[in-house]
């Protein structure tokens, strides 16, 4: 009898753990996808230590919810990096969502479309459109997912940090007259978390691959300015947590410094952690040397003290 009870207990525990690790995958658009052309291009997923996704045709969110007993009500929509050419989907996506879950925070990975003149009519607007829609969609499902609709943040790494900072500087309050109730929701994130982000498209120090992929090799000046997010900070840009390493040669630390300075000038609460080492692309910095591995702890502390 005792052995039978132990077996039942084991099954219950494993079932609970399995349920907690399950995710919800949802298309972000129901119906027509904005700026999308009809094409034969197919999504590609390659695994070589990191899962890299390219040619995204159907943008989706993958929702990881914490146990209700530990849920804080906060949710973070995560934009993986990859230079607007690929998505480092697990390294800077699902791994981050699961880490957030361990702290009672909903982690929602955005599989956004990457700019392509072959499959899109206005490639430079596509990632931003997908991000804004994802924020509206999560707000729409907030009650169902045990999320506070006023505690939905955006997070991004590298080029994903550019997208996240774009969403934190380009947003609207929604359209209450729209037929689609999702469009009633605001696209403003309540906070931002930016990891070694691309911020500026100033050619002298930008990440040229991200810039070229989003706005082209010979862009109009208006789009360079529009997507140089240090120039787009608003009075209602949300509180922001930033981390970056000084030895980052891929995306110079100047990007974060300029964005932080702009936030301070607008009296927007901001916390920035700069590390002497770390280089670029370290995500959770697991099994890495250096003080940059402390950023997750600092970030959780910041989230716990957000007003």
Automatic annotation (TrEMBL):
A molecular function (GO) term: hydrolase activity, acting on glycosyl bonds
An example Gene Ontology biological process: xylan catabolic process
Is the keyword Ribonucleoprotein in the record? Answer: no
Q: Which organism is it from?
A: Cyclobacterium marinum (strain ATCC 25205 / DSM 745 / LMG 13164 / NCIMB 1802)
Asked if the keyword Signal belongs to this entry, the reply reads: yes
Which domain of life does the UniProt lineage start with? Bacteria
Q: Which residues form the BD-FAE-like domain?
A: 62-262
Q: Which InterPro entries match?
A: AB_hydrolase_fold, BD-FAE-like_dom, GDXG_lipolytic_enzyme
Q: Which residues form the signal peptide?
A: 1-19
Return the protein name: Putative xylanase
Keywords of the record, alphabetical order, are: Carbohydrate metabolism, Glycosidase, Hydrolase, Polysaccharide degradation, Signal, Xylan degradation
């Amino acid at each position: 009898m005792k052995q039978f009870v132990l077996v039942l207990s084991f099954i219950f525990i494993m079932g609970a753990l399995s349920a907690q690790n399950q995710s919800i995958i949802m298309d972000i658009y129901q119906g027509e996808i904005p700026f999308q052309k009809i094409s034969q291009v197919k999504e590609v997923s390659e695994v070589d230590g990191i899962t890299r996704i390219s040619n995204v045709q159907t943008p989706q969110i993958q929702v990881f919810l914490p146990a209700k007993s530990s849920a804080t009500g906060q949710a973070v929509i995560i934009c993986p990096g990859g230079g607007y050419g690929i998505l480092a989907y697990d390294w800077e996506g699902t791994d981050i969502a699961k880490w957030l879950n361990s702290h009672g925070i909903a982690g929602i990975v955005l599989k956004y479309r990457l700019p392509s003149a072959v499959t899109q009519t206005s490639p430079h607007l596509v990632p931003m459109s997908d991000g804004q829609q994802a924020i509206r969609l999560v707000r729409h499902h907030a009650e169902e997912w045990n999320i506070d609709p006023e505690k939905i943040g955006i997070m991004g790494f590298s080029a994903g940090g550019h997208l996240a900072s774009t969403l934190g500087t380009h947003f609207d309050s929604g359209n209450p007259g729209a037929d689609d109730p999702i469009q009633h929701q605001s696209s403003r994130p309540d906070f931002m978390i930016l990891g070694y982000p691309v911020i500026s498209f100033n050619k002298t120090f930008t990440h040229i691959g991200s810039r070229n992929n989003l706005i082209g090799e010979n862009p109009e000046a208006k789009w360079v300015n529009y997507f140089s997010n240090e120039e787009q900070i608003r009075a209602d840009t949300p509180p922001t947590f930033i981390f970056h390493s000084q030895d980052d040669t891929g995306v110079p630390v100047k990007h974060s410094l300029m964005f932080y300075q702009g936030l301070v000038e607008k009296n927007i609460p901001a916390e920035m952690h700069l590390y002497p080492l770390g280089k670029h692309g370290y995500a959770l910095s697991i099994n890495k040397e250096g003080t940059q591995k402390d950023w997750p702890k600092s970030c959780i502390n910041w989230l716990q003290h957000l007003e």
